[in-house]
Specification:
Helix content: 55-70%
Number of helices: 12
Order of helices and strands: HHHHHHEEEEHHHHEHEEHEE
Largest sheet: 5 strands, mixed
Radius of gyration: 35 Å
């Protein structure tokens, strides 16, 4: 029993000396400041947008402010998730990315219906009292550490005025007693004891408030609720079905218009050659002409057979490039070597992705290189692919062209976004006017 009490007491008193406590206090500091800033930014933008949109004249400006609030709230939510992961090691998955759609009205409508963004707004507003407690824990620790040092401070900074020592004031934040006046060196020890109590209390306060904040982050800034998740899965499933149907139609069309027609011509030419060779009733003087005609037909059949094989080979590459059998890095190097614009590849792939992910990444890179070749007027393309964190493959394709790429205008980028979303990936496009253009694709290592 005594050993258990000592163990519990040691855990309580020793909490401030652990590395975990330092991380908890760092999260309290950065998270508290970010929470205060996010609260005021969100509150000012949201109230301004709601107030202005009440009037008919200010409706447009009000909607712009509200949609800006929702965009900012998503960015703030991402910041809080990164702080929680980096400082406390608690991973919270991001909600599904926003799908802008096409057209201004459709964009505004989708933005206003963006549930993850509205949950992020709620988090920013609820974060205010949490931030206050987090910053209080940091202040309590700072005051406690100063108070613990008061016996040494008294010896270092004491002052003589008429033979008496000037008193010092030890600050003990409420509700732990306020100020303690220290009039002697021995009187500094109660202040030090109170400071040690403050440090211990701050350590456990930080753990408690950070645990509560972690639950808020998971509940409001994490993946969607069950209904929203089901809706997202239905949408991605529909995209997958449409993509597979389009692929089948493309295969059928390529077979019908390419290889099938060439093989049909091959059969006809061989049939005609057989008829020529089998006609023994022709006059002898026309034998040489028949042989020449047969030779021409056989040559045409050979050419058609070679072309049909080439078409079938291209078709097979379109379904699954054989170069991927040697790995994604080798496939991208081959792709860069065949680019019309000089391209360089840098790789840092740890665990090899699943075959389906490799195929998606390869065709994304091929499409992005083709887009840059057609529209960017670039002099150089850079391809970078690496595993950024556990379970995530990141493909980046950038060029030094004129920029102006927009995934929301029905370009090939929107098709890439649909293909990537079928495996819960995401795509980010940065292409200001004048360039450069950088497209980042994030894919899971396993679908």
């Amino acid at each position: 029993m005594d050993a258990a009490i000592r163990r519990v007491a040691g855990t309580i008193v020793g909490a401030p000396l652990t590395s975990r406590n330092r991380r908890e206090l760092m999260y309290c500091g950065f998270g508290g400041v970010a929470g205060l800033a996010g609260f005021w930014i969100t509150l000012v933008l949201l109230l301004s947008g709601l107030t202005i949109s009440v009037s008919v004249i200010g409706t447009v400006l009000g909607l712009v402010l509200i949609t800006t609030t929702l965009r900012v709230s998503r960015r703030l939510g991402s910041l809080h998730r990164r702080l929680l992961k980096r400082m406390l090691g608690r991973q919270v998955e991001a909600p599904p990315p926003f799908q802008p759609g096409t057209g201004i009205l459709n964009r505004v409508d989708r933005r206003l219906r963006d549930r993850p963004a509205w949950r992020a707004v709620w988090y920013a507003l609820i974060k205010l009292p949490v931030s206050a407690v987090q910053l209080y824990a940091v202040a309590l620790t700072a005051c406690g550490l100063v108070d613990v040092a008061y016996p040494a401070i008294w010896l270092l900074v004491r002052d003589h005025h008429g033979g008496s020592l000037s008193p010092l004031v030890a600050v003990v934040p409420v509700p732990f007693g306020g100020n303690i006046r220290v009039g002697s060196w021995l009187g500094a020890f109660p202040a030090a004891l109170a400071g040690a109590a403050c440090v211990v209390a701050a350590a456990w306060l930080a753990r408690g408030i950070n645990a509560a904040d972690g639950r808020l982050v998971r509940g409001l800034l994490g993946p969607s609720s069950m209904a929203e998740r089901v809706s997202e899965l239905e949408r991605t499933r529909a995209l997958a079905v449409d993509d597979s149907a389009a692929a089948l139609r493309r295969v059928e069309r390529d077979l019908h218009d390419g290889a099938q027609m060439r093989l049909a011509a091959l059969a006809m030419n061989l049939g005609m050659a057989r008829e020529k060779l089998g006609d023994d009733d022709q006059a002898a003087d026309s034998a040489s002409d028949n042989k020449a005609t047969v030779r021409e037909l056989i040559d045409a059949a050979h050419r058609n057979a070679v072309d049909a094989l080439a078409d079938l080979r291209d078709l097979a590459r379109g379904i699954h490039p054989p170069v991927l059998d040697n790995g994604l890095a080798s496939a991208l190097a081959t792709l860069a070597a065949s680019s019309a614009i000089p391209a360089t590849v840098s790789t840092g792939i740890g665990t090899r992705p699943a075959p389906a992910i490799e195929t998606i990444a390869y065709f994304c890179a091929a499409e992005l290189i083709a887009n840059a070749t057609k529209h960017s007027y670039a002099n150089q393309i850079k391809i970078d692919i690496h595993t950024e964190r556990a379970g995530v493959l990141v493909l980046g394709v950038s060029d030094d062209g004129i920029g102006g790429a927009d995934a929301g205008r029905g370009s090939g980028l929107s098709g890439l976004a649909q293909r990537v979303s079928t495996v819960d990936g995401r795509i980010d496009v940065s292409s200001p006017a004048g360039g450069p253009t950088t497209v980042t694709v994030e894919l899971p290592l396993r679908a």
